[in-house]
Amino acid sequence: MNFHTRKWIKPEDLNPNGTLFGGSLLRWIDEEAAIYAIVQLENPRIVTKYISEINFVSTAIQSDIIELGIMATKFGRTSLTMRCEVRNKITRKSILTIDELVFVSVDESGRPKPHGKTEIRYDDKDQPRGVDAAPHS
After folding, report:
1. Which residues of 3-37 are buried (b: 16+ CB within 10 A; e: fewer)?
2. In Å, how far are 40, 109, 117, 124, 136 from 75, measured between CA atoms?
3. Gap between the Cα atoms of 129 and 112, Å rounded
4. Which of 15, 100, 11, 131 is nearest to 64 (CA)?
5. Partners of 51 in the beta sheet?
6. CA-angle at 39, arms to 33 and 40, nearest 5°
7. Partners of residue 50 on adjacent β-strands
8. Measured between alpha carbons, how far is 20 from 12 in angstroms, rounded to an integer?
């Protein structure tokens, strides 16, 4: 899994216990996954369809740096399924994992639109791109 997005935990990101507010983290995950889906499906019109169980196994505090990792796991006819992990950048301790985030490609009217993609290809080490080729190992 590639970890490209980092967030610095600031006072406005904290809950009354002084730890990272889960709602802020989920907003960041949804945004990161949406951007990933837009790039992979080459369509700026995507919607969040489903997010599986979320298990917070640890937290972060002010001044911690966390990193979000997103990995595509499956293409559907109109959808892209991803997996997410969030961890503390310094300690590498996992904060949460989400096994499935599903985004759907839609047309101008908001109806599901086939995207024709079947695999993630990395043009270079940091730039994944969706392509119309058979999956590889």
Report:
1. bebebebeeebbeeeebbbeebbeebbeebbbebb
2. 10, 22, 7, 21, 13
3. 21
4. 11
5. 101
6. 85
7. 102
8. 9
Phi-psi sector, 18: left (phi>0), alpha (psi -120 to 50), beta: left
CA–CA separation, 137 and 74 (whole Å) = 13
Per-residue pLDDT of the chain (137 residues; tens, 9 = 90+): 778 899 999 999 999 999 999 999 999 999 999 999 999 999 999 999 999 999 899 999 999 999 999 999 999 999 999 999 999 998 889 999 999 999 999 999 999 999 998 887 655 554 444 444 334 33
Half-sphere exposure at residue 67, Cβ-oriented, CA atoms within 13 angstroms: 11
Instruction: Return the SS3 of 135.
Output: coil
> Where does the chain show beta strands of DSSP type E?
2-8, 46-51, 54-56, 65-75, 79-88, 94-105, 119-122, 128-131
Predicted model pTM = 0.84
- Tokens standing for residue 43: 């369509």
